[in-house]
Amino acid sequence: MVNQLKESRSAKVLRAFEGKFERYDLVIADELGYISFDKEGSELLFTHLSLRAGSKSTIITTNLSFERWEEIFKDPVMTAAMIDRLTHKSYIVNMNGNSYRLKETKKWLEEQE
């Protein structure tokens, strides 16, 4: 999505691209933080998510705690503002525990013996 935002900005069609996402009742950003963003990507994502805040639903999954989000966005002020907007009137589900993939792999390996 960040690449699409950057390409849309370069092609001068960013507003149309953002408008498309504003119409979605739900946007899911899966595995946020798997890849960090450059300054432009971070700013575009911040703006895009800010436009949705308070009006549309957004689900974000990540393996990183909020304390580590600065590693993704590289800017402590923007990171704090993004967390503030995303957590305002939101549900946070903290899922700690063992990886279900690892559990399934162990079971599969046992069945192979």
What can you see in these coordinates?
By secondary structure, the chain is mainly α. It has one domain (2-112): Rossmann fold (3-Layer(aba) Sandwich), CATH 3.40.50. It is 54% helix and 7% strand. The chain has six helices and two strands; from the N terminus they run H-H-E-H-E-H-H-H. A two-stranded parallel ribbon has the order 1-2. Helix 3 (39-52) links the parallel strand 1 and strand 2 (57-60). Helix 1 (2-10) runs antiparallel to helix 2 (14-22) and helix 1 packs across helix 3. The protein is elongated, with a radius of gyration of 17 Å. The N and C termini lie far apart (42 Å). The model has no long low-confidence stretch (mean pLDDT 86).
Features:
Rossmann fold, 54% helix, elongated, mainly alpha, two-stranded parallel sheet, 2 strands, single chain, 113 residues, 6 helices
What characteristic shape results from the CA principal axes?
A: elongated
Q: CATH architecture, please? A: 3-Layer(aba) Sandwich
- Kindly identify the CATH topology: Rossmann fold
Which whole number gives the mean pLDDT? 86
Strand neighbour order, sheet with most strands: 1-2
Structural class: mainly alpha
Count every beta strand, where a strand is a DSSP E run of 2 or more residues. Answer: 2
Q: What Rg do the Cα atoms give?
A: 17 Å
| Portion in beta strands | 5-15%
Helicity range:
40-55%
The CATH class, by name, is Alpha Beta
Domain module count: 1
- Which sequence of SSEs, written as H and E, runs from N to C? HHEHEHHH
Please identify the oligomeric state. Answer: single chain
**Total of DSSP H or I helical runs spanning 4+ residues:** 6
The CATH superfamily name is: P-loop containing nucleotide triphosphate hydrolases
